[in-house]
Amino acid sequence: MPKSNAADSRAPGKVGARPRVVTTKTVMTMKNTGEKIAMLTAYDYLVAKILDQVGIDIILVGDSLANVVQGHETTLPVTVDDMIYHAKAVKRAVKNALIVVDMPFMSYQTSVDDAVRNCGRVMKEVGVGAVKLEGGAYIADIVKHLVKIGIPVMGHLGLTPQSINKFGTYEVRAQDKTEADELLVDAKVLAEAGVFSIVLEKIPSELAQEVTESIKVPTIGIGAGPHCDGQVLVVYDMLGMTEEFKPRFVRRYAELASSMREAFRKYMHDVKGEQFPTDKESY
């Protein structure tokens, strides 16, 4: 008899172990078993393929592609068509990880009908596992309806980049009691509405711990401390490619921008010095 996704798990952090197929149910089970959830972003086939090969749990096709791929200052300009294009590339590479797609600004906030239409397009045209929506109690009815018709939803609270014009800053959110209490209520409302997990971005660690302990669905932190059920980073940030962006919550696991510049310089030197290609590199 084949094992279920919950049982067919690799030991956390075990190099070379066979990756499991991750679903929304797997993610919720991980909270109950105490296994931390590892999530990273991807926007293209090659990066997604490598992430999937190492056994990353969740791949987020983030609207951060507006910043790191398209060069915009905010995430607001990205469109549903943009997200579908990049999600299709990611989907072609992934066999095991759960793929979640960010829904862009104004693609779901306007009405339940718009949310169903746009989220439905992503699910149907790409075939991913879930969508992610930013916002609290005010989107609860939208979340309920999406979940009811079979579209899994990941929530997102705290610093919500799509609301940058409202906040006016990327500073830590919910530092005062009023906003912290509101965020805790929002998390509980979203959990009751049916989200399978909630991203907590740039909030105090103690608040993230309180939220995590107060709801039954997993929390995934980014700049929210160590007490969340999982963590997420933008892949270009943790690889050291976004050199100007240096928030305290990003750990650099590589310095690829520096390595790439050196490789490009060597290539340019070899071409101009007629050292590339050699006879062995020619037909």
Distance between the termini: 53 Å
Named CATH architecture: Alpha-Beta Barrel
Mean pLDDT: 93
CATH-wise, what's the superfamily? Phosphoenolpyruvate-binding domains
Strand pairing plus helix content: what structural class? Answer: alpha/beta
Structural write-up:
This protein is of the alpha/beta class. The chain has one domain: Alpha-Beta Barrel (TIM Barrel), CATH 3.20.20. It is 40% helix and 13% strand. The protein is built from eleven helices and eight strands. It has helices at 24-33, 45-54, 65-68, 80-93, 112-126, 140-148, 164-167, 177-193, 205-214, 235-238, 256-272; strands at 37-41, 58-61, 98-102, 130-132, 153-158, 197-201, 219-222, 230-233. It has an eight-stranded parallel beta barrel, surrounded by seven helices. Helix 9 (205-214) links the parallel strand 6 (197-201) and strand 7 (219-222). Helix 5 (112-126) crosses helix 6. The termini are far apart.
Question: How would you concisely characterize the structure shown here?
Answer:
This protein has 283 residues and is of the alpha/beta class. It has helices spanning 24-33, 45-54, 65-68, 80-93, 112-126, 140-148, 164-167, 177-193, 205-214, 235-238, 256-272; strands spanning 37-41, 58-61, 98-102, 130-132, 153-158, 197-201, 219-222, 230-233. It has a single domain, classed as TIM Barrel, CATH 3.20.20.60.
Defining key terms:
TIM Barrel; 283 residues; alpha/beta; globular
Topology:
Elements: H1 24-33, E1 37-41, H2 45-54, E2 58-61, H3 65-68, H4 80-93, E3 98-102, H5 112-126, E4 130-132, H6 140-148, E5 153-158, H7 164-167, H8 177-193, E6 197-201, H9 205-214, E7 219-222, E8 230-233, H10 235-238, H11 256-272
Parallel strand pairs: 1-2, 1-8, 2-3, 3-4, 4-5, 5-6, 6-7, 7-8
Helix pairs in contact: 2-4, 4-5, 5-6, 8-9
